[in-house]
Design brief:
This protein has a 6-stranded parallel beta sheet, sandwiched between helices. It has a 6-stranded mixed beta sheet with strand order 7-6-8-9-10-12, sandwiched between helices. With 350 residues, it is α/β, with parallel strands linked by helices. It has 3 domains: 44 residues, lambda repressor-like DNA-binding domains (434 Repressor (Amino-terminal Domain), Orthogonal Bundle); 135 residues, Response regulator (Rossmann fold); 130 residues, 3-Layer(aba) Sandwich (Rossmann fold). The chain is 42% helix and 15% strand. The termini are far apart. The chain has 13 helices and 12 strands. Helix 7 links the parallel strand 3 and strand 4. It holds the Pfam family Peripla_BP_3. InterPro entries: HTH_LacI, LacI/GalR-like_sensor, Lambda_DNA-bd_dom_sf, Peripla_BP_I. One of its GO terms (molecular function) is transcription cis-regulatory region binding. Keywords: DNA-binding, Transcription, Transcription regulation.
């Protein structure tokens, strides 16, 4: 099989007996070219299978009009929601988006950073892996003044633009809500403390207990990746013997929904015996029975702020805009039936 020959504007020009410069201007909608000529050129381009070389154009003007985005997993609600917002908003500014997922692998994250740098993206937006504690692989963007923004999962001591949720307030609000509903023995299921999200949510949980003079018990906090399988195993530990908790604050909604499923299996009633609060306001929380109370992180607001900050960094000189700042996106507790009513549990299976 012969190798396909890539068609160029020279081929279009020869077919139409036009100059190369006229074809180029027609393809770029130059106002000095007539509509009739533009139409003729574009039809011939389609016929020949011409593809514009965006990389070559980027090399000429030092802009690729492309942004790189690295998220942990696109299958999770929050990264998926925010990726959609970022892509839509970037398109309004004439930019394309390359979406990559690290699968929570630190090694994969390093490889993606290098790949996107080689692809000459005009900026990089990142939500890090659960286990990223060394951020030196991002230095290549910082050192070359390429806009770099972290969101949601962010560095603690790395001087970059950060846009994050108010996770401390989220943890505090979720726990306070359970206490105000009468809970006195509240389990917290957290992600690994290598990630900023869970450090702050645990701190909010602890401080709410302290404020209401309830004891903090290390045995009531569990740390692991927030998957369904891990949540199920944790439920087996929690409910292996009484006394059972009367409240659970889960750091994501997958975990909250899994807890509810497990409780149904062992005849622990939600919310009568156990009240549950999740995190992220995943759409599933509204359609399960009972609907799950959750903390809304406002992904649309965060995505819009990420793009606004990115455009500011791209369109201004490095010296005129602070490259190192932090912006906090508020949270809101969405109360539903999983935390309704008053506690009536005796600590035994019903």
């Amino acid at each position: 099989m012969s190798k396909r020959t890539e068609k160029t504007i020279v081929d279009i020009a020869e077919e139409l007996k036009l100059s190369v410069s006229t074809v180029s201007r027609a393809l770029n909608d130059n106002p000095n070219i007539s509509a009739r000529t533009k139409d003729k050129v574009k039809k011939m381009a389609r016929k020949l299978g011409y593809r514009p070389n965006a990389l070559a154009a980027g090399l000429r003007n030092n802009k690729s009009k492309t942004i790189g985005l690295i998220v942990p997993r696109i299958s999770m609600f929050f990264p998926a929601a925010i990726s959609t917002i970022i892509q839509n908003k970037l398109q309004e500014h004439g930019y394309n988006l390359i979406i990559c997922q690290s699968n929570d692998s630190y090694e994969q994250e390093i490889a993606l950073v290098n790949t996107l740098y080689s692809a000459r993206v005009d900026g990089l937006v990142v939500s890090t892996t659960l286990y990223t504690t060394d951020f030196s692989h991002f230095d290549i963007f910082k050192d070359n003044n390429i806009p770099l923004i972290f969101f949601d999962r962010v560095p603690k001591d790395y001087n970059v633009k950060v846009i994050k949720g108010d996770d401390y307030v989220g943890g505090y609000t979720a726990t306070t809500h359970l206490i105000e509903k009468g809970c006195k023995d509240i389990v917290h299921i957290s992600g690994p403390l290598s990630c900023n999200l869970y450090v702050e949510r645990v701190a909010g949980y602890k401080n709410a207990l302290q404020e209401f003079k309830l004891p903090f018990k290390k045995t009531r906090v569990f740390y692991h990746e927030l998957t369904r399988d891990n949540a199920w195993q944790t439920c087996e530990k929690i409910f292996s013997q009484p006394p059972f908790p009367d409240g659970v604050f889960a750091s994501n909604d997958t975990t909250a929904i899994t807890i509810m499923e497990y409780c149904r299996k062992i005849n622990v009633r939600v919310p009568e015996d156990l009240k549950i609060v999740g995190y992220s306001n995943d759409p599933r929380t509204e359609i399960v029975t009972p609907p799950v109370t959750s903390v809304d992180q406002y992904p649309a607001m965060m995505g819009e702020r990420v793009v606004a900050a990115l455009m500011e960094l791209i369109n201004t000189a490095p010296s005129s805009v602070p490259r190192y700042s932090q912006e906090i996106i508020p949270i809101q507790l969405i109360a539903r039936e999983s935390s309704a009513g008053t506690v009536k549990s005796s600590g035994k299976k019903k």
